[in-house]
Amino acid sequence: MIEGALWRRWVFYNIPLILFVFVLLFPFYWMIITTFRPDGELYRPWNAVNYMPFWTNNPTIEHILYLFEETNFMRWMLNTMMIAFVSTIISLFCGVLAGYALARLNFPYAGGLGTAIFVTYLVPQTLLFIPLAEIIRNFQLGDTPWSLILTYPTFLIPFCTWLMMGYFKAIPKELEECARIDGASRWKAMLYIVIPVAVPGILSSGIIAFTLSWNEFIYALVFLSSPDQKTVPVGVTSELIRGDVFFWGPLMAGALLGSIPVAIVYSFFVEHYVSGLTGSVKG
To answer: Which keywords appear in this protein's UniProt record, sorted alphabetically (predicted)?
Structure first.
Protein backbone atom coordinates (compact mmCIF):
# COMPACT_ATOMS: atom_id res chain seq x y z
CA MET A 1 0.00 0.00 0.00
CA ILE A 2 2.78 2.42 0.95
CA GLU A 3 4.82 1.48 -2.12
CA GLY A 4 1.79 2.11 -4.34
CA ALA A 5 1.29 5.55 -2.80
CA LEU A 6 4.98 6.41 -3.31
CA TRP A 7 4.80 5.20 -6.91
CA ARG A 8 1.74 7.33 -7.63
CA ARG A 9 3.38 10.34 -5.95
CA TRP A 10 6.44 10.02 -8.18
CA VAL A 11 4.46 9.44 -11.36
CA PHE A 12 1.77 12.09 -10.87
CA TYR A 13 3.62 14.71 -8.79
CA ASN A 14 7.40 14.48 -8.49
CA ILE A 15 8.31 13.65 -12.09
CA PRO A 16 5.92 16.24 -13.66
CA LEU A 17 7.18 18.84 -11.17
CA ILE A 18 10.82 18.09 -12.04
CA LEU A 19 10.06 18.32 -15.77
CA PHE A 20 8.20 21.59 -15.27
CA VAL A 21 11.04 23.14 -13.27
CA PHE A 22 13.58 21.97 -15.85
CA VAL A 23 11.64 23.43 -18.78
CA LEU A 24 11.10 26.65 -16.81
CA LEU A 25 14.70 27.20 -15.70
CA PHE A 26 16.68 25.81 -18.62
CA PRO A 27 16.31 28.95 -20.81
CA PHE A 28 17.74 31.06 -17.99
CA TYR A 29 20.62 28.62 -17.55
CA TRP A 30 21.32 28.73 -21.29
CA MET A 31 21.18 32.52 -21.21
CA ILE A 32 23.73 32.67 -18.38
CA ILE A 33 26.09 30.16 -20.05
CA THR A 34 25.91 32.00 -23.39
CA THR A 35 26.60 35.33 -21.67
CA PHE A 36 29.91 34.11 -20.22
CA ARG A 37 30.95 31.82 -23.09
CA PRO A 38 33.71 33.25 -25.35
CA ASP A 39 33.06 33.64 -29.08
CA GLY A 40 35.45 30.84 -29.85
CA GLU A 41 33.15 28.40 -28.07
CA LEU A 42 29.91 29.99 -29.23
CA TYR A 43 30.65 29.48 -32.90
CA ARG A 44 32.50 26.18 -32.59
CA PRO A 45 30.95 23.33 -34.65
CA TRP A 46 28.92 20.88 -32.62
CA ASN A 47 31.11 17.97 -33.75
CA ALA A 48 34.38 19.68 -32.76
CA VAL A 49 36.75 18.11 -30.27
CA ASN A 50 36.04 18.98 -26.62
CA TYR A 51 32.79 20.72 -27.55
CA MET A 52 30.65 21.28 -24.42
CA PRO A 53 27.30 22.91 -25.25
CA PHE A 54 26.12 23.16 -21.65
CA TRP A 55 29.26 24.39 -19.93
CA THR A 56 32.33 26.56 -20.47
CA ASN A 57 35.85 26.20 -19.09
CA ASN A 58 36.87 29.72 -20.13
CA PRO A 59 34.25 32.17 -18.80
CA THR A 60 34.58 35.75 -19.96
CA ILE A 61 32.80 39.07 -19.45
CA GLU A 62 33.65 40.41 -22.89
CA HIS A 63 30.01 40.29 -23.97
CA ILE A 64 28.91 42.36 -20.98
CA LEU A 65 31.70 44.88 -21.64
CA TYR A 66 30.66 45.05 -25.29
CA LEU A 67 27.11 45.75 -24.21
CA PHE A 68 28.11 48.71 -22.03
CA GLU A 69 30.88 50.10 -24.25
CA GLU A 70 29.55 49.61 -27.78
CA THR A 71 25.79 50.13 -27.25
CA ASN A 72 23.49 52.46 -25.32
CA PHE A 73 22.40 49.71 -22.96
CA MET A 74 22.46 51.85 -19.81
CA ARG A 75 20.35 54.46 -21.57
CA TRP A 76 17.89 51.74 -22.60
CA MET A 77 17.70 50.52 -19.02
CA LEU A 78 16.96 54.02 -17.71
CA ASN A 79 14.33 54.58 -20.39
CA THR A 80 12.64 51.27 -19.63
CA MET A 81 12.72 51.88 -15.88
CA MET A 82 11.23 55.35 -16.16
CA ILE A 83 8.53 54.36 -18.65
CA ALA A 84 7.53 51.24 -16.71
CA PHE A 85 7.45 53.08 -13.37
CA VAL A 86 5.38 56.07 -14.53
CA SER A 87 2.93 54.00 -16.58
CA THR A 88 2.48 51.62 -13.64
CA ILE A 89 1.72 54.48 -11.23
CA ILE A 90 -0.85 55.95 -13.63
CA SER A 91 -2.47 52.57 -14.24
CA LEU A 92 -2.58 51.69 -10.55
CA PHE A 93 -4.19 55.01 -9.61
CA CYS A 94 -6.91 54.64 -12.24
CA GLY A 95 -7.31 50.90 -11.66
CA VAL A 96 -7.78 51.23 -7.89
CA LEU A 97 -10.44 53.93 -8.22
CA ALA A 98 -12.25 52.14 -11.04
CA GLY A 99 -12.04 48.78 -9.30
CA TYR A 100 -13.44 50.22 -6.07
CA ALA A 101 -16.29 51.92 -7.91
CA LEU A 102 -17.26 48.76 -9.77
CA ALA A 103 -17.03 46.60 -6.65
CA ARG A 104 -18.68 48.87 -4.09
CA LEU A 105 -20.93 51.42 -5.78
CA ASN A 106 -24.38 50.36 -6.89
CA PHE A 107 -25.18 51.82 -10.29
CA PRO A 108 -26.84 50.40 -13.40
CA TYR A 109 -24.83 48.04 -15.61
CA ALA A 110 -21.87 47.89 -13.19
CA GLY A 111 -21.32 44.20 -13.93
CA GLY A 112 -21.50 44.67 -17.67
CA LEU A 113 -19.14 47.63 -17.49
CA GLY A 114 -16.61 45.56 -15.54
CA THR A 115 -16.77 42.80 -18.14
CA ALA A 116 -16.41 45.35 -20.96
CA ILE A 117 -13.32 46.82 -19.29
CA PHE A 118 -11.73 43.38 -19.07
CA VAL A 119 -12.61 42.62 -22.70
CA THR A 120 -10.66 45.69 -23.79
CA TYR A 121 -7.60 44.13 -22.15
CA LEU A 122 -8.04 41.09 -24.40
CA VAL A 123 -7.92 43.14 -27.62
CA PRO A 124 -4.59 42.31 -29.35
CA GLN A 125 -2.01 45.06 -29.43
CA THR A 126 -1.47 44.35 -33.11
CA LEU A 127 -4.93 45.83 -33.73
CA LEU A 128 -4.50 48.85 -31.47
CA PHE A 129 -1.09 50.18 -32.46
CA ILE A 130 -2.36 51.54 -35.81
CA PRO A 131 -4.99 53.94 -34.36
CA LEU A 132 -2.69 54.70 -31.42
CA ALA A 133 0.10 55.58 -33.85
CA GLU A 134 -2.24 58.07 -35.53
CA ILE A 135 -3.04 59.65 -32.16
CA ILE A 136 0.65 59.82 -31.22
CA ARG A 137 1.42 61.48 -34.55
CA ASN A 138 -1.37 64.06 -34.15
CA PHE A 139 -0.09 65.04 -30.69
CA GLN A 140 3.53 65.03 -31.91
CA LEU A 141 4.67 62.59 -29.23
CA GLY A 142 6.48 60.21 -31.55
CA ASP A 143 9.98 59.04 -30.56
CA THR A 144 9.53 60.29 -26.99
CA PRO A 145 8.99 58.36 -23.74
CA TRP A 146 5.52 59.94 -23.46
CA SER A 147 4.38 57.96 -26.49
CA LEU A 148 4.73 54.81 -24.37
CA ILE A 149 3.78 56.29 -21.00
CA LEU A 150 0.40 57.32 -22.43
CA THR A 151 -0.23 54.16 -24.48
CA TYR A 152 0.78 51.49 -21.97
CA PRO A 153 -2.17 52.36 -19.68
CA THR A 154 -4.52 51.37 -22.52
CA PHE A 155 -3.87 47.73 -21.61
CA LEU A 156 -2.64 48.18 -18.02
CA ILE A 157 -5.68 50.04 -16.67
CA PRO A 158 -8.21 47.37 -17.73
CA PHE A 159 -6.03 44.66 -16.20
CA CYS A 160 -5.50 46.54 -12.92
CA THR A 161 -9.19 47.46 -12.75
CA TRP A 162 -10.34 43.87 -13.17
CA LEU A 163 -7.81 42.57 -10.68
CA MET A 164 -8.61 45.20 -8.05
CA MET A 165 -12.34 44.80 -8.55
CA GLY A 166 -12.06 41.15 -7.55
CA TYR A 167 -9.85 42.02 -4.58
CA PHE A 168 -12.23 44.73 -3.32
CA LYS A 169 -15.14 42.29 -3.56
CA ALA A 170 -13.24 39.91 -1.27
CA ILE A 171 -12.94 42.57 1.46
CA PRO A 172 -15.88 42.39 3.90
CA LYS A 173 -18.30 45.25 3.45
CA GLU A 174 -18.81 45.36 7.22
CA LEU A 175 -15.43 47.12 7.64
CA GLU A 176 -16.54 49.96 5.46
CA GLU A 177 -20.04 50.06 6.91
CA CYS A 178 -18.66 50.43 10.45
CA ALA A 179 -16.61 53.41 9.33
CA ARG A 180 -19.66 54.94 7.66
CA ILE A 181 -21.69 54.47 10.86
CA ASP A 182 -18.97 56.28 12.84
CA GLY A 183 -19.38 59.28 10.56
CA ALA A 184 -16.74 58.71 7.89
CA SER A 185 -17.58 59.68 4.35
CA ARG A 186 -17.31 57.13 1.57
CA TRP A 187 -14.08 58.73 0.43
CA LYS A 188 -12.53 58.50 3.91
CA ALA A 189 -13.79 54.95 4.39
CA MET A 190 -12.14 53.96 1.14
CA LEU A 191 -8.93 55.84 1.85
CA TYR A 192 -8.40 54.84 5.50
CA ILE A 193 -10.16 51.47 5.74
CA VAL A 194 -10.41 49.70 2.38
CA ILE A 195 -7.17 50.82 0.71
CA PRO A 196 -4.88 49.71 3.61
CA VAL A 197 -6.53 46.29 3.61
CA ALA A 198 -6.13 46.07 -0.16
CA VAL A 199 -2.39 46.86 -0.15
CA PRO A 200 -1.38 43.25 -1.04
CA GLY A 201 -3.68 43.35 -4.07
CA ILE A 202 -2.41 46.79 -5.07
CA LEU A 203 1.20 45.62 -4.85
CA SER A 204 0.41 42.48 -6.83
CA SER A 205 -1.28 44.54 -9.54
CA GLY A 206 1.65 46.93 -9.58
CA ILE A 207 4.21 44.15 -9.92
CA ILE A 208 2.37 42.57 -12.84
CA ALA A 209 1.77 45.96 -14.49
CA PHE A 210 5.45 46.84 -14.11
CA THR A 211 6.44 43.51 -15.66
CA LEU A 212 4.07 43.98 -18.60
CA SER A 213 5.45 47.48 -19.18
CA TRP A 214 9.04 46.30 -18.91
CA ASN A 215 8.59 43.47 -21.43
CA GLU A 216 6.35 45.30 -23.92
CA PHE A 217 7.75 45.21 -27.45
CA ILE A 218 5.25 46.19 -30.18
CA TYR A 219 4.43 49.73 -29.05
CA ALA A 220 8.08 50.45 -28.23
CA LEU A 221 9.14 49.19 -31.66
CA VAL A 222 6.55 51.29 -33.50
CA PHE A 223 6.66 54.54 -31.52
CA LEU A 224 10.43 54.82 -30.85
CA SER A 225 13.10 55.08 -33.53
CA SER A 226 16.09 56.93 -32.08
CA PRO A 227 18.73 54.67 -30.49
CA ASP A 228 18.81 56.88 -27.37
CA GLN A 229 15.04 56.59 -26.83
CA LYS A 230 14.67 52.82 -27.15
CA THR A 231 13.77 50.43 -24.38
CA VAL A 232 15.70 47.28 -23.50
CA PRO A 233 13.59 44.77 -25.48
CA VAL A 234 13.70 46.89 -28.63
CA GLY A 235 17.27 48.16 -28.25
CA VAL A 236 18.81 44.74 -27.66
CA THR A 237 17.04 43.10 -30.59
CA SER A 238 17.41 45.97 -33.06
CA GLU A 239 21.03 46.89 -32.33
CA LEU A 240 22.45 43.39 -31.81
CA ILE A 241 20.73 41.68 -34.74
CA ARG A 242 22.06 43.11 -37.97
CA GLY A 243 20.61 41.47 -41.01
CA ASP A 244 21.22 37.77 -40.61
CA VAL A 245 24.06 38.27 -38.11
CA PHE A 246 23.17 37.52 -34.50
CA PHE A 247 25.56 38.71 -31.79
CA TRP A 248 24.57 35.88 -29.46
CA GLY A 249 26.89 36.77 -26.60
CA PRO A 250 25.78 40.41 -26.19
CA LEU A 251 22.19 39.38 -26.95
CA MET A 252 22.11 36.94 -24.08
CA ALA A 253 23.97 39.40 -21.84
CA GLY A 254 21.34 42.04 -22.59
CA ALA A 255 18.53 39.60 -21.90
CA LEU A 256 20.16 38.53 -18.64
CA LEU A 257 20.82 42.03 -17.36
CA GLY A 258 17.43 43.23 -18.57
CA SER A 259 15.64 40.56 -16.52
CA ILE A 260 17.42 41.42 -13.26
CA PRO A 261 15.23 44.45 -12.29
CA VAL A 262 12.04 42.44 -12.77
CA ALA A 263 13.46 39.58 -10.72
CA ILE A 264 14.40 42.02 -7.94
CA VAL A 265 10.90 43.54 -7.93
CA TYR A 266 9.28 40.11 -7.71
CA SER A 267 11.57 38.71 -5.04
CA PHE A 268 11.62 41.83 -2.86
CA PHE A 269 7.99 42.91 -2.93
CA VAL A 270 6.42 39.47 -3.01
CA GLU A 271 8.57 38.07 -0.19
CA HIS A 272 8.71 41.10 2.10
CA TYR A 273 5.42 42.85 1.43
CA VAL A 274 2.74 40.90 -0.42
CA SER A 275 3.16 37.62 1.49
CA GLY A 276 3.65 39.38 4.83
CA LEU A 277 0.68 41.69 4.39
CA THR A 278 -1.53 38.85 3.20
CA GLY A 279 -0.55 36.82 6.25
CA SER A 280 -1.26 39.70 8.59
CA VAL A 281 -4.68 40.29 6.99
CA LYS A 282 -5.57 36.60 7.37
CA GLY A 283 -4.36 36.65 10.94
So the answer is: Cell membrane, Membrane, Transmembrane, Transmembrane helix, Transport
